[in-house]
Amino acid sequence: MVEITNKLVDDLAHLSRLTFNEEEKEAIKSDLKEMISFVEKLNEVDTSNVEPLLHITPHQNILRDDVIEGSITREEALKNVPNTDGEYILVPKVIKK
Question: How many domains does the chain have?
Fold first, then answer.
């Protein structure tokens, strides 16, 4: 079993750009131990006669033809928009130069 130490928690915190106080570290150590023991239980399962699963279904790349269908008018599209110039939807600027 993997040993869960404060150094391991600190390394994980550093990689995830998080900070934890001592109480949180203890809770995380406990949670990690539970998760690892759960995953290690999978080692008890006999998988010797199980074929590797590459895809959930036997189907791959099922594509459909694009079909042009009806659409709504510009007036209908702008009917419930909070801010418009009559032709386009106006939104707040989010990218600053």
Answer: 1
User: The pTM is what?
Assistant: 0.48
What is the DSSP annotation of 28-85?
A: HHHHHHHHHHHHHGGGGS--TT----S-SSS---------------HHHHHTT-SSB-
The domain of 10 spans: 6-44
pLDDT at 43: 87
**What's phi and psi for 51, nearest 5 deg?**
-75, 145
* pLDDT for 33: 94
CATH (domain of 20):
1.10.20
- Is the residue at 34 inside a domain? yes
pLDDT score of 1: 67
pLDDT at 95 over 80: yes
> Does residue 57 belong to any structural domain of this protein?
no
